[in-house]
Amino acid sequence: MTATEARPTASLGHEELHRIDRYWRAANYLSVGQIFLVDNPLLHEPLRAQHIKPRLLGHWGTVPGLNFLYAHLSHQVAKRGTEMMWIVGPGHGGPAAAATAWLDGTYTDVYPDVTQDTEGMRRLFRQFSFPGGLPSHNAPEIPGSIHEGGELGYSLAHAHGAAFDNPDLVVATVVGDGEAETGPLATSWQSHRFANPARDGAVLPILHLNGYKIANPSLLARIPEHELVSLLEGNGYHPRVVTADDPETAHVRMAEALDASLDEIADIQRDARSGGPVPNVRWPMLVLRSPKGWTGPDEVDGLPVEGTWRSHQVPLPAVRDDPEQLRALEEWLRSYRPGELFAPNGAPLPEVCASLPVPERRLSASPHANGGLLLKDLRLPDVRDYAVRVPEPGRVRHQATRVLGDYVGDVIRANPRTFRMMGPDETTSNKLDTAFADSGRAWDARRLPTDEYLDPDGRVMEVLSEHLCQGWLEGYLLTGRHGLFNSYEAFVHIVDSMFNQHAKWLKVTRDLPWRRPIASLNYLLSSHVWQQDHNGFTHQDPGFLDHVLNKKPEIIRVYLPPDTNSALVTTDRCLRMRDTINVVVAGKHPALSFLTMDQARAHLERGAGIWEWASTDDGAEPDVVLACAGDAPTRETLAAAALVREHLPELRVRVVNVVDLTRLTERHPHGMTDRQYDALFTANKPVIFAFHGYPSLVHRLTYRRHGHENLHVRGYKEEGTTTTPFDMLMLNDLDRFHLVMDVVDHIPGLGIRAAHLRQRMQDERMRCRAHTREYGDDPPDIRDWTWG
């Protein structure tokens, strides 16, 4: 099937055309006003310099195209009754989103002081890109949005996340031509191959080619038309191209193209839901070619503006000081004929809003864009049913993620339309594949007899793009569902920037009462730094924790469960939380278990606590505190404690395990008070802290605590290779023998009388190193060590 060039037809009646055009002109007028005006919103008097904002911040170039599309999408919803939301991919479309929400009445519903009259219009204009007002991008403050425009590339991924398990929803998604050049967006074109038209909603991509980015041509707008069409067809779409010549022709062409596309979506879904076989689906999409800065100034100071990169931001940058530019702005605003659009009191005239759908179907009021309104609690199995038996601490081994896979699989089974797990082709590698017993991998492309677990109705989403997994999950959460993202620890960094945007979104929405809380974004990181035996240095990086803990404390939770039962109760807690980002690091290899289920739950409630069975202080003041966070550091700390108990029995040793890393800082809602911290770690005794990640993070969290000068942290120090687990620990001085050496070095007066022990620990390190080099494995006494 080839691309269809949409041609003028009689499908759009004369009166319908004029209703859509009035709405478009009104939205354009409001958008220009937001960029420039601080007063005189309806030009009731000649425009003067004092009516202009002192700082012109905002963007015009993409806005008229967005307003054009919104007007047509609203018309289709009104005509068809379609349940639709829209996503604005172009980063600088903030004025359009605010203008259309105000015209619809949704903005006033949410912000009653921004009324639909002259004063409300003045407030709308004044607050845009103004201190204390709206950001210049499409942002959480604007109703109808789930997609912050500050960073490009995620619109299609968010859209498909919104459409999964929403069978009646159409997500109209505008992809900017600059955005289309990003890596995440390039991958996102394949998202429809993971959607099941029998069960999921539909995404209607609209590639908006206005020719330029900030200062350069956009690539897809410049390649030959047949190459563009071939590219889109190769991605599995049936593209319809709408070229905006003059506005009237453009209106007719867009109406025809949207009619055909929405009919095509309905046909695909009807066929898929009839119960018969579904052939290879080619979804419709639109391409809109329109000038950048459409309907704006043709030229400024003798240079072309409309249809060029100069219209990207503020086409009249000197309007406050240049009388000619001021005159041009007034002509520009009056070219929309505001007297035909707004009553003398500033209210939109009825004929402007005549093409809008009923209030509950307005794009700006979609409940899917305020997902907390639709959110229902998960049906969670009793986590105690998955507990592993721990008859004694540190004597038996279990695989944390394999047990978690059983739990997650049952969560999927109990919540077949509201929970999904995403991951970049690592579910099996991370030993979570027991979840496949209850759900296969979502897949709607060709299958071969050798494939395993591929299922059009699968609930586990796997694609080798962390960006795409993150985007899908964000869209799913933001529209009122739940999920889990599993990843290799080292490569979750790929979504650092996407994590940033979601954290910022949550931070802002917490202060917007009308935004209802959504389910938390949950990361389960495995294949972690301390046991990347076969992949080596490139796969050894625990730094995501540092990145996460830079964000607002009320948003962030970081958990380092020491064993399997702790990982279970931690994951169960995270799936119940709202408006947070939770990071759980759990190993996938067999590891010692220390806590029963009841002990693990109590330990998680405390967040950090003394393990009395491993300590020898007997309730007295300890000589040294051996602290740990993470499964491998916990094992090494306990082994070090056993060595100290054997060789220095007179020392009083306290073992403290930290499962909730945010307990360490007083600046977090989970943070301990100084009194609690001092009771646990003491204020004046040496603390040897074995940490999963970079040592500087623990220092950053505790630098204001009493006795910080006595805190000595061992962790990852960027030493790694393909080697054995214990050799990896020795490379970073996190092994048990080095921890004992730290005890000798940091307890005052112990160095001289324990010099023999310190030397013996050095010898033990050399013995282990030599063994690994000769036999390719750790010594049996290290590999098979158990407590007691």
TrEMBL record:
EC number from the UniProt entry: 4.1.2.-
Pfam families linked: XFP, XFP_C, XFP_N
GO terms (BP aspect): carbohydrate metabolic process
GO molecular function terms noted in the UniProt entry: aldehyde-lyase activity; magnesium ion binding
Keyword check for Endoplasmic reticulum: no
Domain named Xylulose 5-phosphate/Fructose 6-phosphate phosphoketolase N-terminal: residues: 14-373
Source domain of life: Bacteria
Location of the Xylulose 5-phosphate/Fructose 6-phosphate phosphoketolase C-terminal domain: 588-787
Cofactor or coenzyme needed: thiamine diphosphate
InterPro entries per record: Phosphoketolase, THDP-binding, Transketo_C/PFOR_II, Xul5P/Fru6P_PKetolase, Xul5P/Fru6P_PKetolase_C, Xul5P/Fru6P_PKetolase_CS, Xul5P/Fru6P_PKetolase_N, Xul5P/Fru6P_PKetolase_ThDP_BS
Keywords assigned by UniProt, alphabetized: Lyase, Thiamine pyrophosphate
Statement: the UniProt record of this protein carries the keyword Lyase: yes
Entry-linked PANTHER family: PHOSPHOKETOLASE-RELATED
Family: Belongs to the XFP family.
Name of this protein: Probable phosphoketolase
Lineage: Bacteria, Bacillati, Actinomycetota, Actinomycetes, Streptosporangiales
